[in-house]
Amino acid sequence: MTDEKKEKKELTPRDYWMYDTMTEMRRMLENVRGNMDEVFGRMPWPTWRPWRPTTPATYREPFADVIDTGAELKVVVELPGVVKDDITINATNDSLEISAESKTEKEEKEGEYVYRERGYASFRRMLTLPAEVIPEKTEATFNNGVLEVVLPKKEPTPAEKKVKVGVK
Question: Which of 15, 18, 55, 148 holds its CA 20 to 30 A away from the CA of 113?
Answer without folding.
Answer: 55
